[in-house]
Amino acid sequence: MKKSGYIVGILVMMGSFSVPVFTQNSRITSAGANIVRGITLSETSNLHFGSMSVPTAAVSVKLTTSNDRITTTPGNIELLAQAPLPQNAMYTVSGTGDATYAITLPINGAVRLTSGSEHMEVIDFVAHPASAGADALAGALNNSGSDSFTVGATLQVGEAQPYGVYAGTFFIAVNYN
Q: 51 to each of 27, 48, 86, 137, 155, how far by Cα in Å?
């Protein structure tokens, strides 16, 4: 019985001591936000393939981002040096300094130049951001929040394409990366 009395006494003594139990823990932490300036796109000049003769066969006329106008079959068309002259589309991008941005160009089959009921397709759009130094679909704004880029494309001219003034529009967008 003495043994059981000792055990009960030890248990009573142990119950009188309190062991700290952590049921909650807290901490002050930080939070933040970054409000960026909206990105804008301004057109400096529109895309124009210039003047050319009526082709003797189907031909593609490419306007590079450096404003060079070339054709793979020069015997089928004459690229004329009269107004209107070929001109790249040119854009200025503005936004938050040192940010990068992506350029969205039209997909093939989305752009058509028309003159009355006649039309020509514009394909293979390409951009050349000044910040990239090469043809690319992304650029970087300088520390003042500015960059520019040119756009070129390829015009598909049909055999004996009727003469006329052809025009159309296309969608282009820029977004922060």
A: 71, 9, 7, 28, 12
